[in-house]
Write a structure and sequence with these properties.
alpha+beta; five-stranded antiparallel β-sheet; 3 helices
Length: 93
């Protein structure tokens, strides 16, 4: 399954066009490497997604062409979630 489609179906990102833009900006890593929107996602792959200062790492558990909102979280397992501190925050300490 394409990366941009998986991000949309799993509801990690709400729209496929936004998922494509985020991938094009280099904010999605697939198994530790920068991934294009057309990259092939397989079960067991790890995705690292940067949302501003927040970084979410998930492992792909299932692949479905479409899913209901309540079943979307079953497509992945959260491995790690972190918030990176901005460098400008250190200035005021």
């Amino acid at each position: 399954m394409r990366l941009d489609k998986f991000l949309k179906v799993s509801r990690l990102i709400k729209r496929r066009t936004v998922a494509k833009d985020v991938s094009d900006q280099g904010r999605v890593l697939l198994n530790g490497r920068e991934a294009k929107p057309s990259a092939d996602v397989k079960i067991g792959d790890e995705l690292e997604i940067q949302y501003g200062q927040r970084i979410l790492t998930v492992r792909v558990e299932k692949l479905l062409e479409s899913t209901k909102k309540e079943d979307a979280e079953g497509l992945y397992a959260i491995v790690k979630e972190e918030v990176r501190k901005r460098e400008s925050d250190d200035f005021f300490l």
